[in-house]
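Quick question: what would this complex look like in 3D?
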Amino acid sequence: MSKANGARRVVVTGQGVVSSIGIGVPDFWAAVRRGDNGIGTITLFPHGDLYITIAGEVKGFDPQQRCPSKPFLLADRYSQFAGSAAIEAMTQAGITGKVEDGFRAASIIGSGIGGLTTIELGYDDLFIKQKKATHPLTLLRSIASSAAAHVSIEYGIKGPCFGTVSACSTAAHAIGLTYQMIRSGMIDLGVAGASEACITFGSMRSWQAMRVLSPEGCFPFAKRRNGTVLAEGAGILVLEDLEHARARGARILAEVKGFGMTSDAADMVNPSIEGPSVAMQMALDDAGLSPDDIDYINAHGTATTINDINETRAIRQVFGNAANKVCVSSTKSMHGHCLGAGGGVEAVASIMAINDNFVPATIGFDEPGAECDLDYVPNVGRAREVNYVMSNSFAFGGLNAVLVFGPAPD
Amino acid sequence: MDEVADKIVAILKKTMKNPPETIPMDTKLSDLEIESIDLAVIVFDIEDTFGIQIPYNANEEVQDFATVGSVVERVKSIIAEKGNTAGAAA
């Protein structure tokens, strides 16, 4: 039944993903199990004078196949990824037409930067090609609320509809807020997550200037790590009130047990330990779980010097002795840093870890970096019982969002 | 007059909250209270001023950025390399 205090429980009845290691959950998860590396030389545009020329590009994405309705076909790449993931998730949830009670459903799909490809092409048209006007769809393609709106239109979702914007925590915030809305009784169903498709020349130049990208690859927690690698993708869940899911006979994949969100209130780039650790503790408290209950932490693990040490310390602070036995891995080592979409892609990895009793590896791991002394599941994934997974997202500006997932309720 | 050193010191002072009158070459960058993203901004300013590209990864310990003097030397050597390359191409 419900929690002791009568609160509603929120479950996952569908999931969808687009990533550099696979489009669609089956391909994605098979790649995760194999330890595939989705990072490679950029092919989306000419490199020019870029000195960082690698990224996690999504390969072979066919919008005609993945998001065939007209609004998606005319949309920016970021919306198309969102469409693909949302349609996959809703199809798995058994919803192919309009949702039953539109006003009691939500579409919360965020993005770090929205339709950046469209924006860049627009400026090219205006300033370089000196065209008199941009394409009329330019604005609608650019804004970071369009994916959420497209999904709402696709499924007749008439309740809350907007995009979250919180850099690398965007997707986790979307999922967490939707979970809270369902739990509050405001809605019964939500399509939640985020999408990012910002591998453009301008974006790479901007990121290069921050000096945090690696020219070689993404090696979280490893001694060899020297920065992160950008990627594109989308991760979207269908969240539902447990009783609502049971009433319509939906297959339940997992439960959203808890959500914590905090801010460092410190620095735009350097994380604090307090913000992430309080967010993790909040998520545990919300879930009614203790650190010992967590089998696997899907880390934020960006492979920057600073995040990995900070996250390790924060985990030790919250988990105490339990830190010595929890598995911690960063799937960013495989799919790259999907920025706003990261938390969504990683939510899918977390849910699959529970369903498959398999902990993904941190690939590319030579030896532990200094002060990185947890079990990072180096190089080879591990088959073991997985019941509760914590998924961390820590963003620029010190924006922290932590989700805890558990098995489908009996 | 060391024009390169002067320009670099001017850039450093611009980014600092309370810049001192003079900044000797052996001053450690870490002593100048330059933190976080400020270093990337300083490197960008230097690159823009001299029309060069400075290889620098914030995730790595870079000896080039230990002292003000080492930054000046690195910039001078990149300018020289650039000059040589241009000469060779001509």
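Answer marked as accepted. Chain B touches chain A at residues 35-37, 39-40, 43-44, 53, 55-60 (CB under 8 Å).
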